């Protein structure tokens, strides 16, 4: 879980309590990435801290990364580099699709995924389904960069469990995007990374040339075995074509992974990728172009070997989690 501490020497005390100091104070955020590894940075201020029915929520104003959204002790998004995560999540599936008009977002409550989707001129309708209304409302109020997206007439915002909403709806979609919280024990989302969910809920809701993409957790040289490799292997059991890719996110202190899947092949060259960016997207990407995506989808030897050898299939009874615990776990 992420801790906030105040100290007089600029170092966090790591115990999660604000300790007043008589001398000049520094406020720090500290996140436990692994049992013996912590990541911390200085804060300007704490904008919000609380808990919804589903998750613990913090909005911090950090010195190195700007405003940062933290859920269940895990940094979800930071103002200075969120464009890397959201461009990588959104544009590869939409650009690989021949004509993406209808999009369903699972999660995405902060609005950044919707913002990137709505830059595509072809898109007619976006359904954003997030389970946590408090997170959505808070982000609408405080993350001004996404204000226009929330009021775009093409966006329909639904507060519901994504699984229940997909099951309820009769529509099928060109692209379904999993912008979900990380699979942590006691969190609200780990069931949405399972083979049964992909096979019985997601795939039937895709058009014949439809594409599914999900964020897939840490994908670094050591961290990729937490969930990235098994989510990849799970999707391979359901779809004919599966493409893993990754990029470094400075505020995450790690490389992050996404996985794109379809029953239609992914055949865009880097030049074709760039041409579609020019033809289809309003404005200029800050991070992603054809060469960048080619690089992102060329994984290191060690990670490729792990993915090739992975046998674990993600299920509710045999789940893997990244380090940490969700709100439900801590209440038990």
How would you explain this protein's 3D organization?
- The protein has eleven helices and 13 strands.
- By secondary structure, the chain is an alpha/beta fold.
- The strands form two sheets. It has a seven-stranded mixed sheet with strand order 9-8-7-10-11-13-12, with helices on both faces.
- Helix 7 (228-236) packs across helix 10 (301-309) and helix 8 (270-280) crosses helix 9 (290-296).
Question: What does the secondary structure layout of this molecule look like, with pairings?
Answer:
Layout: E1 2-7, E2 26-34, E3 37-51, E4 56-62, E5 66-71, E6 74-78, H1 82-96, E7 102-107, H2 112-117, E8 125-130, H3 133-142, H4 147-150, E9 155-159, H5 162-168, E10 173-179, H6 195-202, E11 206-218, H7 228-236, E12 241-249, E13 254-262, H8 270-280, H9 290-296, H10 301-309, H11 327-331
Parallel strand pairs: 7-8, 7-10, 8-9, 10-11
Antiparallel strand pairs: 1-2, 2-3, 3-4, 4-5, 5-6, 11-13, 12-13
Helix pairs in contact: 7-10, 8-9
Q: Helical segment tally?
A: 11
Beta-strand content bin: 25-35%
First-to-last CA distance:
16 Å
Helical residue percent?
25-40%
SS-based class: alpha/beta
Shape summary: globular
Characterize the largest beta sheet: strand count, sense, and whether it forms a barrel: 7 strands, mixed
